[in-house]
Predict the 3D structure of the following.
Amino acid sequence: MTTLNKSAFRFLVLIVCTSIVSMLGIEGQADDVKRVGMIGKGSQKASTARIESLKQGMREYGYIEGENVNFEYRFANGDGELLLRLADELKELDLDVIVAAGCPAADAVKSAAQTIPIVVYTTNPVATGLVKSFAHPGGNITGMTLMTGSEFHSKRLELLKLIRPSASLIGVFWNPSIKSHQLSLKEITNTAENMELSVLPLDAQTNDDIERAFKTMSDEKPDALINFGDSIFSANKKSIADYAIANKLPANFNNAGFVSAGILMSYGPDPVKLFVRLGNYVGKVLDGAKPSDLPVERPSEFDLVINLKTAEKINLTIPPEILLQATKTIQ
């Protein structure tokens, strides 16, 4: 072999070796990229703030989208049957963890994916059978829970009673297809009875059901309104707020998004803040923690948001003791 041929051969070997090392490096990097699925019953657009908060919480654990973690989003836009199919899709994607936003999504993904770690944001996962206990979830599910129970419902009803002392009938928007709503309706009915109040259930799963609820309220004349969180109510928050204002009904809904639409007030934990903590949980699971070893976390902060413009429109004066409790007011 000539000197020139030897040099060419060495150069060729160098190129081949460099290519192999490069390919191995890329493959190694790909192996290090985690895959996170996220599923919800509502729309991805409406969940933008929560998704960003989730990513913020994950960044606190070193997981950055596009660098060492990628996302697979599945949102059903209010379609319960589609939600079940989307949960089946996620199961087949070889994910490291699934985030389930809301009770219907948590139920759907639990049935579909029994071995993939699942981090949920839901109401009372113990009572609905998602986990064994708050302290020791067991299985493949953990996450954040919203506050429920007589104490929470009592506070929501108490705020309405302080604003409208003559109130006796409370309309409650709920979705009968959601397990946690079934439990919450029983809880709030019992709590209301102890406060000498009655409950008017306003069940809704579709837009047509919302219109039917308006007809029911026109017939039954509730004195105030409350809801349990669901995408059907979020999707119709403007029409619900308009009805409440037109009929001078004080309403205490589950998050501040409704207050921005014109509902009088909201009381409850801030879901955007909770999703930061949810992102922390995802980070822990990606670091190797088992969901069964991570206690389900309950909120410690509750926001009271009041729309003073709505109060004026429905001819209500907010008592000073309530204004002092307000986290935020809309002027």
